[in-house]
Automatic annotation (TrEMBL):
<keyword id="KW-0676">Redox-active center</keyword>
<dbReference type="Pfam" id="PF02852">
    <property type="entry name" value="Pyr_redox_dim"/>
</dbReference>
<keyword id="KW-0520">NAD</keyword>
<dbReference type="InterPro" id="IPR050151">
    <property type="entry name" value="Class-I_Pyr_Nuc-Dis_Oxidored"/>
</dbReference>
<dbReference type="InterPro" id="IPR004099">
    <property type="entry name" value="Pyr_nucl-diS_OxRdtase_dimer"/>
</dbReference>
<keyword id="KW-0963">Cytoplasm</keyword>
<feature type="domain" description="FAD/NAD(P)-binding">
    <location>
        <begin position="3"/>
        <end position="324"/>
    </location>
</feature>
<dbReference type="InterPro" id="IPR012999">
    <property type="entry name" value="Pyr_OxRdtase_I_AS"/>
</dbReference>
<dbReference type="GO" id="GO:0004148">
    <property type="term" value="F:dihydrolipoyl dehydrogenase (NADH) activity"/>
</dbReference>
<feature type="domain" description="Pyridine nucleotide-disulphide oxidoreductase dimerisation">
    <location>
        <begin position="344"/>
        <end position="452"/>
    </location>
</feature>
<dbReference type="InterPro" id="IPR016156">
    <property type="entry name" value="FAD/NAD-linked_Rdtase_dimer_sf"/>
</dbReference>
<dbReference type="InterPro" id="IPR036188">
    <property type="entry name" value="FAD/NAD-bd_sf"/>
</dbReference>
<keyword id="KW-0560">Oxidoreductase</keyword>
<dbReference type="InterPro" id="IPR023753">
    <property type="entry name" value="FAD/NAD-binding_dom"/>
</dbReference>
<protein>
    <recommendedName>
        <fullName>Dihydrolipoyl dehydrogenase</fullName>
        <ecNumber>1.8.1.4</ecNumber>
    </recommendedName>
</protein>
<keyword id="KW-1015">Disulfide bond</keyword>
<keyword id="KW-0285">Flavoprotein</keyword>
Length: 463
């Protein structure tokens, strides 16, 4: 069985690559060992947002009086129904990918894939039978899985990863979240909002450590205000799961302490799924577990490509999709432009939300830039105050010499819907003057971007 392109993995990198290849007239097959849509649609981005929406509605109901409404007399929930809704949303999106595969005449082959020399792929089905297929080009898009720390082995019951956190049978009364990246703080917010006693343990000096320091400080204040306990500069060195409660030994600057909870969530990042793929036999180079690629997602062996969480760059669904499109268009001979990895936005969907793109203030200074920094609080934004969401701010970083927009960092209600303005503006090399003179609609939270830029240049009106 021969194709123009075989895609291994059907996550947001793989299925997008397959569809674009079909649009370009290629005969395409996609190999998937589990559900279509990959981790993102089934066990990541989408179902977590469904859980977070339930938490947001529950929070609104409990604060109805803040909006001049009568608080409902009985505000309660069935945890199983919340999880069931989330699984239903994920299932709907996965079925949507099934439809797109049929619509674009992409052959779906179920099974575990292994690349072979000579541009071949061995596919082993669940029943153990296998077959070989071949293509002119092979794209590896096998994604990543939860990182398992040696000191925190996951048993799927008392010590869980993100998959376990998405489908718990009952709500735990207490939870320790190890790691404060996007996965950690999103689940911490969700469970805390529904009443679980949550403690975050972060190894580094501050939570959400990849974000601008001002963002980290604001989020820590907000999470603590909501009742979440936070330990930074702290490391879980071991767990005891023999009792009714998990006992986690935590090493801090003040010494060791024992934390107890019903469940420990290990949210210390992800690792790429590159084992047992046959990379060594084909001669495909890897570095620190990730496949080495060039600007067009080509591996070290001609005809083999790789995209998404198995290659360089942040582990983000939208980056995987962009790489998939770039990769396929390059294969088809289209004129393509290399991805600017410095202009990939990141979003975290806790409350308040976080969105950012480009350099932090510290990174810009470390790179040798003299910077202009502007900041505008949502407490001075009419729409935010009307929404009852005045916490947070927009922060912008510009190169003082040439006016290049180096970075944009936001924390607040709905900011993940606002960051695209900064991404597009940076892509177009827009100046601060052009942002200030672009009339933003009033009242909107997007005005805070314009006013933060005005603040950087001493033109701020409302602060």
């Amino acid at each position: 069985m021969s194709y123009d392109i075989i895609v291994i993995g059907s996550g947001p990198g793989g299925y997008v690559a397959a569809i674009r290849a079909s649009q370009l007239g290629k005969k395409v097959a996609i190999v998937e060992k589990a559900e279509l849509g990959g981790i993102c649609l089934n066990w990541g981005c989408i179902p977590t947002k469904a859980l977070l929406k339930s938490a947001q509605v529950f929070k609104y109901l409990n604060h109805a009086e803040d909006f001049g409404l009568n608080k409902p007399s009985d505000i309660s929930f069935e945890f199983g129904n919340v999880v069931a809704r989330s699984r239903g949303v994920a299932d709907r999106m996965s079925k949507g990918v099934q439809f797109l595969m049929k619509k674009n005449n992409i052959e779906v082959i179920q099974g575990a894939a292994q690349v072979l020399p000579g541009k071949k792929v061995k596919v082993t089905a669940a029943d153990g039978t296998s077959k070989e297929i071949a293509a002119e080009n092979i794209i590896i898009a096998t994604g990543a899985r939860s990182r398992e720390l040696p000191s925190l082995p996951q048993d799927g019951k008392k010590v869980i990863g993100y998959r376990g956190a998405l489908a718990m049978e009952k709500q735990p009364k207490s939870m320790i979240v190890v790691g404060s990246g996007a996965i950690g703080v999103e689940f911490a917010h969700f469970y805390n909002t529904l009443g679980t006693d949550v403690t975050i343990v972060e190894y580094l000096p501050r939570i959400v450590p990849v974000e601008d320091e001002d963002i980290s400080k604001q989020l820590q204040l907000s999470l603590k205000k909501s009742g979440i306990k936070i330990l930074t500069n702290a490391e879980v060195t071991g767990v005891d799961t023999t009792g009714d409660l998990v006992k986690a030994t935590v090493k801090t600057a003040k010494g060791e302490e024992i934390l107890e909870a019903e469940v420990v969530l290990s949210a210390a990042g992800v690792v790429p799924n590159t084992e047992n793929l046959g990379l060594e036999a084909v001669g495909i180079a890897t570095e620190r577990g990730k496949i080495v690629i060039n600007d067009f997602c080509e591996t070290s062996v001609k005809g083999y490509y790789a995209i998404g969480d198995v290659v360089k760059g942040a582990d983000l669904a939208h980056l995987a999709s962009a790489q998939g499109i770039l990769c396929v268009e390059h294969i088809a001979g289209e004129k393509v432009e290399a991805i600017d990895y410095g202009n990939i936005p990141g979003c975290t969907y806790c409350s308040p939300e976080i969105a950012s793109v480009g350099m932090t203030e510290a990174q810009a200074k470390e790179a040798g830039y003299e910077v202009k920094v502007g900041k505008f609080p949502f407490s001075a934004n009419g729409k935010a105050v009307a929404n009852g969401a005045a916490d947070g701010f927009v922060k912008v970083v510009f190169d003082a010499k040439y006016g290049e927009w180096l970075g944009c960092h936001m924390i607040g209600d709905g900011v993940t819907e606002m960051i695209a303005e900064a991404v597009a503006a940076r892509k177009l090399e827009t100046t601060a003057h052009e942002i200030m003179k672009s009339v933003h609609p009033h009242p909107t939270m997007s005005e805070a971007i314009m006013e933060a830029v005005e603040d950087a240049y001493g033109h701020a009106i409302h602060i």
